[in-house]
Specification:
Shape: globular
Number of strands: 32
Oligomer: single chain
Radius of gyration: 30 Å
Structural class: alpha+beta
Largest sheet: 6 strands, mixed
Number of helices: 23
Strand content: 15-25%
Helix content: 25-40%
DNA sequence: GAGATTGTCGTACC
DNA sequence: ACAGGTACGACAATCTC
C-alpha cells in the first residue's frame, strides 16, 4: 500500500477512471479510482416496483451492481429517483439502452454525461489541485509514467499546481502552405520550443553562419520532427502551448509525421497528439500533458474584457505584454530559406513561442480560476465558449442541491428552438446634437439582478397566477402573453446567481483593501458566468433552455428602464438616450446633487439586488443623425470626460472594417469638436486630408480595408468587395474559409467596387473618388451635420466630392 | 438605364 | 450549435418607370 500526492492534470475514462498528474517532485503519475461506481438515474412512478428487476439487470460484460431509491430534486421539484449503479464505465450506455426498451415508463437521466465529468461532479473534485491516491502500485508498462496506483482517491487541498512546467511551440512552413485543401505538402523548416523553466530552442535544417546559441541544426525535416519529439519528452511539460495550434501547428505536424511514419511518444500514453475533427474545427489533445491553444482561450473566454479587433498573436501580445512579434516579411521566408539567409526568421520563430508562453503566463490566473469554478480539466475549460462555461458550472452546482441534470436537447429540438426568437432590449432614439454636461446612469448587472428579483428559472415559470407577473410580452405571432414566476421558493438559476453575486461582492471587499490578481481573476470568472446566464437560457443548445425566461428577463428590463426614464423626466431631467440598462441625461440647470438624489430615490424603489448606479459625468457628448434621415442614430455617440478622455461608441472610428485614413480622420474631428475647437478648424482639417488623398500623399497601409469572411466562399449569394478579394487571395495561396481575415485597397477603375479591389502589394493606383466619397465624407458628414450644416448642404456637396462649400 | 428599394453582410452596442 | 437581441450602414441585386 502506498499514498501518493499529485496535482491532477488530466482525466480519462476508458475501462477505468484514470487520473494523470504530477507529484510535488515532478514525477508523472497515473491514479486509478477503483472505488468509483458509475451511475445514472431513473425517474418514474414505477421505480419502487422495478427496483428489484433493474438491480438484477445484466447484459454481456455490463451489469447493475446496485439500485437505490434516492431523494432528489428535478427542476426544483422534490421527488424519488432510482439511482442505478453499474460495474464499469461503458455499462451506462448498454444498460440505459436496455432499460429504455424494457421499461419505457421510466425516464432515464444523466446518461449523457461523460464518465469523468460525472466523476468530478459526484466527488466534488477540482482538477489542477492536489489530490491523493491511497492504494496499490500496479503495472504500467503501456504508460509513460513513473508510478501508477490503484486505490482510493481524495482531494487534499484547494491550492492549484504552483509552478507548472510549460512549453510553447511554434512552427514555420516552407512556401505559403496553410495546410488547407491541398493538404500540408510543404515541409516544416523550423520549430521553436520555449519553456517556462529556462529553456529555449529553435530546430532547423538549413545551416547558416554565426547561429544564435539557441539554434539546433539537424539534417532534414524528418530529423527536425524526431528532435522536437525528443526535446518535448525530455522537457517533461505539464502544459504544451501553441497559438492557433489546434487549427494549424499540431494538425500540420501530425500530417508531416505521418509522411515519415514517425510515431510520437509524447503524452502519458506514449501515443502522441491526437487530432479530433468535429464540425470543421480540429482539436489537438494529449494524454496527461494538457495542450492549450492560447488563441482559443484569448479569443474565447477572454474576448469580452480584451475586446480586440483581432486576436492575432501580434495584436494580443501588444495588448497584454506591450510588445509584438519580430518584424520580418514572412512572405519572404521561402526565398530566404533557399538562399540560406534565415537567421532573422529563426529569431522570429523563437519570439512567437516566447510571446505565446508569456501571454499564457499572464492569463494563467484567469484559466486557473475558471477551472476551479467550473471543475473541468484545463484542456477543456480553456476551449470552452461562454455557453459551455455556464452549462458546466450549472452541472457542477447541481450536486449541491441534489438536482438532476437536465438532458442535452437532441438535434431536432435544437433546430426547432432556433426557429423562434423573442424581443430583446429597449434602445431609445437619441437627441442628436453636441451636448454639454452629461451624465450616464446604469443598472448594475441588470439581467442577473432581474433574474434574481423576479425568481426567473425554468422551474418557477407558471402560465397562470399567482407569482411575479411579467409585463405584457408580444410573441412572434404578435399575440400578447404574460408569464408568472413562483414567489415562494427560489429557483435553481436565481439561487446560483445570487450566490455568485454575493461571492463577488465579498471578493471585491477584499481586493479593495488588498489588490490581488488571483482574486480579480476569480471575480472575473464569476462575472463571466453571471452575465452569460441570461443568454444561455435563450440558447437553443442549452440543457436549461427557457425562452420564456429569457423573454421575461428582457421584458422586465424594458419596463425598469422605461420607468426610470419616465421618473427622470417627471423630475425635469433631460433624458437624451438609453440603451438596455443605461440612461444619458443632459444636466442643463440640474446639479450633480440632484442626480445623486434621483439615484438614491430610484434605488429605494428597486427590489432585491437591483441597483441604479452613477456611471460617469461627461464634459461634452455628441450624438448624430442616422444617415440621410432626421432621426438620431442609435448606438453611435462620442463623449469626453472631465479628464479629457475620449470615449467613442459605434462610430466608424471603432469599426475594424473601415480604412485607417477614414477612422483617424473621424477620430480627430470628434476629438477637436469634443474639446471645444471651432467647427471651422475641424473642417479645415478634413479638407487637408482630402487634399492629401487627391495628391497621392497617403500611405497605402492607411487605405487598407480589413474584414472577415463569415462563411465559406461558395456560400455567398452576394459578391461584395470582401468576397471578391477573398477569391483573389485564395488564388495567391492564402487559406480562405469561414473566419479568414481578408484585406484590400480599392483601386482605380470603372464598374462595381468589387471589380476594383486589389491586394495592397499589387495595387497600382488607389481610387481617389472612392476614398473621398465612400470613406472620408461618410465618416465626417454626420458629425458636421449636427453642428448646424443642413442635410441638403451635405448631400449636394457629396456629389461634388467636396466639402469646400461648407 | 438611372434612381429607388430590398436584401445580404459585417461589425458594433449592451 | 457551441449565450441573446438591437442597430447601422455599405454594397449588390432587384425593381420601377
Amino acid at each position: 500500500m502506498v499514498k501518493i500526492q499529485f496535482y491532477a492534470l488530466d482525466l480519462e475514462s476508458d475501462e477505468n477512471l484514470k487520473i494523470y498528474g504530477k507529484t510535488l517532485d515532478n514525477k508523472r503519475v497515473c491514479a486509478i479510482d477503483k472505488n468509483y461506481k458509475p451511475s445514472f438515474y431513473a425517474l418514474g412512478k414505477d421505480i419502487e416496483k422495478l427496483k428489484k428487476k433493474i438491480s438484477l439487470l445484466e447484459e454481456d460484460e455490463s451489469k447493475v451492481t446496485e439500485a437505490l431509491i434516492e431523494d432528489v430534486s428535478y427542476y426544483d421539484e422534490k421527488t424519488k429517483a432510482l439511482r442505478v449503479y453499474t460495474n464499469n464505465l461503458k455499462a451506462i450506455t448498454v444498460l440505459a439502452h436496455r432499460i429504455r426498451q424494457d421499461y419505457p415508463t421510466l425516464d432515464l437521466k444523466e446518461t449523457d454525461i461523460s464518465a469523468y465529468k460525472r466523476y468530478l461532479i459526484d466527488n466534488n473534485l477540482t482538477p489542477l489541485t492536489l489530490w491523493e491516491v491511497d492504494g496499490d502500485i500496479i503495472n504500467h508498462h503501456e504508460l509513460n509514467v513513473e508510478i501508477c496506483v490503484s486505490g482510493k482517491i481524495t482531494q487534499v487541498s484547494d491550492d492549484i499546481i504552483p509552478n507548472p512546467r510549460v512549453l510553447a511551440l511554434d512552427i514555420e512552413v516552407y512556401g505559403f502552405d496553410f495546410g488547407g485543401d491541398k493538404g500540408s505538402v510543404e515541409p516544416i523548416i523550423m520549430l521553436s520550443l520555449v519553456g517556462s523553466h529556462n529553456y529555449k530552442k529553435v530546430i532547423t535544417w538549413k545551416r547558416f553562419k554565426n547561429p544564435q546559441n539557441y539554434i539546433e541544426f539537424v539534417d532534414s525535416e524528418m530529423a527536425l520532427l524526431e528532435k522536437a519529439n525528443e526535446e518535448i519528452l525530455k522537457y517533461n511539460p505539464d502544459y504544451l502551448l501553441g497559438y492557433f495550434s489546434d487549427g494549424f501547428d499540431f494538425p500540420y505536424i501530425e500530417k508531416r509525421m505521418k509522411k515519415y511514419k514517425i510515431k510520437s511518444k509524447i503524452g502519458y500514453d506514449n501515443k502522441g497528439i491526437k487530432i479530433r475533427n468535429n464540425t470543421g474545427e480540429s482539436i489537438a489533445k494529449l494524454k496527461g500533458i494538457s495542450h492549450i491553444d492560447v488563441y482559443k482561450f484569448v479569443s474565447g473566454a477572454m474576448s469580452v474584457p480584451l475586446d480586440l479587433d483581432s486576436y492575432s498573436l501580434d495584436i494580443v501580445a501588444k495588448e497584454l505584454l506591450g510588445r509584438g512579434k519580430v518584424e520580418v516579411n514572412i512572405n519572404k521566408l521561402s526565398e530566404s530559406w533557399d538562399k540560406g539567409d534565415i537567421k532573422k526568421f529563426c529569431e522570429y520563430n523563437l519570439m512567437d513561442s516566447i510571446l505565446t508562453l508569456e501571454i499564457f503566463q499572464k492569463i494563467l490566473p484567469n484559466i486557473n480560476e475558471l477551472v476551479k469554478l467550473i471543475g473541468s480539466p484545463i484542456q477543456e475549460t480553456s476551449r470552452m465558449t461562454y455557453g459551455q462555461l455556464v452549462e458546466h458550472y450549472l452541472m457542477k452546482r447541481c450536486r449541491d442541491f441534489k438536482e438532476i441534470i437536465p438532458k442535452r436537447p437532441p438535434r431536432s429540438i435544437v433546430f426547432e428552438r432556433r426557429m423562434h426568437t423573442y424581443q430583446g432590449a429597449l434602445v431609445m432614439e437619441p437627441l442628436p446634437g453636441l451636448h454639454e454636461n452629461l451624465v450616464f446612469l446604469d443598472f448594475r448587472s441588470l439581467y442577473p439582478t432581474v433574474t434574481i428579483a423576479k425568481n426567473i428559472s425554468p422551474s418557477t415559470l407558471r402560465l397562470h397566477p399567482p407569482g411575479y407577473e411579467t409585463p405584457e410580452i408580444r410573441d412572434e405571432s404578435g399575440r400578447s402573453v404574460v408569464y408568472y414566476f413562483d414567489k415562494n421558493k427560489e429557483g435553481f438559476i436565481p439561487k446560483i446567481l445570487r450566490d455568485i453575486i454575493q461571492r463577488r461582492n465579498t471578493l471585491k471587499e477584499i481586493t479593495k483593501k488588498e489588490p490581488s490578481p488571483v482574486l480579480n481573476a476569480r471575480s472575473y470568472a464569476l462575472k463571466t458566468i453571471a452575465n452569460s446566464t441570461y443568454g444561455y437560457m435563450g440558447f437553443a443548445g442549452a440543457r436549461w433552455y427557457c425562452r420564456e425566461c429569457s423573454s421575461s428577463i428582457t421584458a422586465w428590463a424594458r419596463e425598469y428602464i422605461t420607468q426610470t426614464i419616465e421618473d427622470a423626466r417627471k423630475e425635469k431631467f433631460k433624458v437624451i438616450y438609453s440603451d438596455t440598462d443605461s440612461v444619458a441625461i443632459v444636466l442643463e440647470n440640474k446639479t450633480r446633487q440632484d442626480i445623486l438624489k434621483f439615484i438614491e430615490k430610484t434605488n429605494k424603489k428597486l427590489p432585491d439586488l437591483m441597483e441604479l448606479e452613477l456611471e460617469s459625468f461627461y464634459k461634452r457628448g455628441i450624438f448624430v443623425y442616422k444617415k440621410g434621415e432626421l432621426k438620431g442614430a442609435k448606438k453611435k455617440y462620442a463623449l469626453i470626460t472631465e479628464k479629457n478622455e475620449i470615449k467613442i461608441k459605434g462610430f466608424e472610428t471603432v469599426r475594424g472594417d473601415w480604412s485607417k485614413i477614414a477612422r483617424k480622420t473621424q477620430y480627430d474631428v470628434l476629438k477637436l469638436i469634443l474639446e471645444g475647437t471651432p467647427k471651422e478648424k475641424a473642417m479645415k482639417y478634413v479638407l487637408k486630408v482630402i487634399d492629401d488623398l487627391r495628391n497621392n500623399k497617403v500611405n497605402k497601409e492607411d487605405l487598407v480595408i480589413q474584414t472577415q469572411l463569415k462563411m465559406n466562399l461558395d456560400e455567398y449569394s452576394v459578391i461584395g468587395p470582401h468576397v471578391a478579394i477573398a477569391k483573389i487571395m485564395k488564388e495567391r495561396g492564402f487559406r480562405i474559409g469561414a473566419g479568414s481575415p481578408v484585406w484590400y485597397i480599392v483601386g482605380e477603375g470603372s464598374g462595381k467596387i468589387r471589380d476594383n479591389v486589389c491586394l495592397p502589394d499589387e495595387c497600382k493606383n488607389y481610387s481617389k473618388d472612392y476614398y473621398i466619397n465612400n470613406q472620408i465624407i461618410p465618416a465626417v458628414e454626420k458629425i458636421f451635420m449636427v453642428l448646424g450644416y443642413t442635410k441638403e448642404d451635405i448631400l449636394k456637396d457629396k456629389k461634388q466630392s467636396s466639402l469646400g462649400d461648407f
